[in-house]
Design a protein that fits this description.
Blueprint (H helix, E strand, L loop, with lengths): L4 E4 L7 E5 L2 H6 L1 H10 L9 H10 L4 E9 L2 E12 L6 E5 L11 E2 L7 H11 L4 E8 L3 H4 L7 E6 L3 E5 L13 H17 L2 E6 L4 H16 L10 H16 L3 E8 L2 E10 L8 E9 L8 H15 L4 E3 L6 H5 L3 E3 L1 E7 L1 H4 L1
Parallel strand pairs: 5-7, 13-14
Antiparallel strand pairs: 1-2, 2-3, 3-4, 4-5, 4-6, 7-16, 8-16, 9-14, 9-15, 10-11, 11-12, 12-13
Length: 352
């Protein structure tokens, strides 16, 4: 079935399910996928085709198996998976697209289609040909958490990395109700210190994406080099994925590069994504940052987060999501852990 989306209907009374098994078929699905993503009220930018198609082009390794759910010909659900065979020959796993570089993984399903989850699960059980389904970084309320366990299978659900989140007030003068007085004092102090160091300019890049991303690569690598490590952007395939994704994210209005310049030179970058306008409980997602380690005394990280929080409030965001990881700085801002979960499903023959 390589090279096409094949219509399957294991349950004659159920919805129409298509298997999308190669990149060209996935790319052809992009306009409908984007419309579905826009219509799912709690979908994050990480479920958008702008993010996941570049991920599969450059990072994915294995056999694509995305399930497209249709009702009357309309795309009403998408479960983007792939089968991965471990190099050591210890098993075949069914992963969601985006794993490892993506903080929230999930399917897309219109709320009216929740009853179709059982049929999708049965279809997967027949067609996935995997020793286990491994689905990490699922939020509470995730469609993949709600998918019924196929008959005879075993299930394990465990806590995954939490994502600290800061609830944002509607007005800047109310920030003190969410962020400690000490953190706000520290922010004022580091802003004064940075202004004394030279001509300071922090902006949200809107005109271009190449210069901020190139600076992020340089600064992120320099910071991690001080620890003797390469960082998450060291892999050329990951760099290629981001370069491919950024233009589409930018066109869709989902991308924010918060940039700090000192005397005209970029010295810190925060790479963030944001929910589209009009979405309820709109969030900004602080994905990745980099700064010149020689300027650590100026606290460029704090400067950028402060600027990004204020900018997010100005455009109507109500949550600043620091994404996975329990780094101390996130809690200085008053962020509180939001749980995510890892779900593992094993068929009867593999559980024996």
């Amino acid at each position: 079935m390589r090279g096409r989306a094949a219509a399957m209907r294991p349950d004659p009374a159920g919805p129409a399910i298509e298997e999308v098994t190669d990149l060209p078929a996935l790319e052809r699905l992009q306009p409908e996928w984007d419309a579905l993503w826009q219509a799912v009220p709690d979908a994050t930018p990480f479920q958008s085709p702008a993010w996941l198609i570049p991920w599969w082009r450059h990072v994915g390794d294995g056999a694509l198996l995305a399930l497209a759910l249709r009702e009357g010909g309309r795309l009403v659900g998408l479960l983007p998976f792939y089968r991965y065979a471990r190099p050591e020959g210890t098993g075949r796993l069914l992963f969601p697209l985006g794993i490892a570089t993506t903080d929230y993984l999930d399917a897309l399903l219109l709320p009216s289609q929740a009853p179709a989850l059982a049929a999708l699960g049965r279809h997967l059980a027949l067609r996935a040909d995997a020793d286990a389904w491994e689905w990490p970084q699922l939020r509470a309320g995730s469609a993949l958490l709600a998918l019924p366990v196929p008959a005879g299978w075993t299930e394990e659900v465990a806590a995954a990395d939490p994502c600290p989140c800061l609830a944002l007030p509607e007005r800047l003068d109310a920030l003190a109700t969410r962020i400690s007085a000490k953190t706000l004092r520290d922010l004022r102090t580091v802003r004064r210190r940075a202004e004394q160091a030279g001509m300071l300019d922090w902006t949200t890049e809107a005109a271009g994406i190449e210069a901020p991303f190139d600076a992020l690569l340089r600064l992120h690598a320099a910071r991690w080099a001080t620890r003797g490590e390469g960082g998450v952007l060291a892999d050329p395939a990951v760099q290629a994925m981001h370069r491919d994704a950024l233009p589409a994210l930018h066109r869709a209005g989902l991308l924010r590069f918060h940039v700090l310049r000192l005397d005209g030179e970029i010295v810190a970058v925060l790479y963030a994504l944001v929910d589209p306008p009009g979405r309820a409980a709109r969030r900004i997602y602080f994905y990745l940052s980099g700064f010149d380690p020689a300027l650590e005394r100026l606290s460029p990280g704090m400067l950028l987060v402060g600027q990004a929080v204020e900018a997010a409030m100005a455009e109507g965001c109500v949550v600043a999501d620091f994404l996975r990881g329990r780094e101390r700085y996130k809690y200085f801002w008053g962020a509180e852990d939001q749980p995510t979960f890892r779900r593992r499903l094993v068929p009867p023959c593999a559980a024996c």
